[in-house]
Amino acid sequence: MDREPTYAFGIELRLTPSADGGRGTALLGGSGPDRRFKYRPNWGLPGMVPPEQTGAPVFAFSREHIAPGEACRAVIFALFSKQVPLWAAVNEGTDLQMYEGTRVCGVGHVMWRAETKLPVPDEDVSRFLAWLAES
User: What pLDDT does 135 receive?
Assistant: First the structure.
């Protein structure tokens, strides 16, 4: 099977409170096989002019039921790393705006970046899940 090269990012994600324009309900979150890649927000990268954004689904979260205003860890995958070269400039310390439509629903602070592939190799699945479990 051919695997497409891409980037994975470990982020500290803080959801925008509902009162500040964030989502009105909690994210289901979780890291089980049935929850992986289910939440598909878009992200504003450095160099993009809001509301410009690009896709990067959440592989998994460090916990379940994340309410607006709360924080957790998450691992995201750049879907179009070749087509959106701005992904190559996202590194540790970068802040990414998380969008649902045109609404900013959170901010992800990048803790690490790793080169990986899609579909995700088993050894990377284990590594990323271990990082999420540390929190």
Answer: 81
State phi, psi for 78 to the nearest 5 degrees.
-70, 120
User: Does the pTM of the predicted model rise above 0.85?
Assistant: yes
Q: Any idea where the domains of the chain sit in the sequence?
A: 4-133
Tokens representing residue 97 in the block: 């705006």
Q: For residue 43, how many other CB atoms are within 10 A of its CB?
A: 23
Could you tell me which CATH class the domain 4-133 is placed in? Answer: mainly beta
d(CA 11, CA 61): 10
pLDDT in tens, 78-125: 988 999 999 999 999 999 999 999 999 999 999 999 999 999 999 999
How many other C-beta atoms are found inside a 10 Å radius of the C-beta of residue 11?
26
Give backbone dihedrals phi and psi of 21, rounded to 5 degrees, phi first.
100, 5
Q: Is 66 exposed, middle or buried (0-12, 13-18, 19+ CB in 10 A)?
A: buried
Task: Kindly report the three-state secondary structure assignment for every residue of 38-58.
Answer: CCCCEEECCCCCCCCCEECCE
Contact 13/44 with Cβ under 8 angstroms? Answer: no
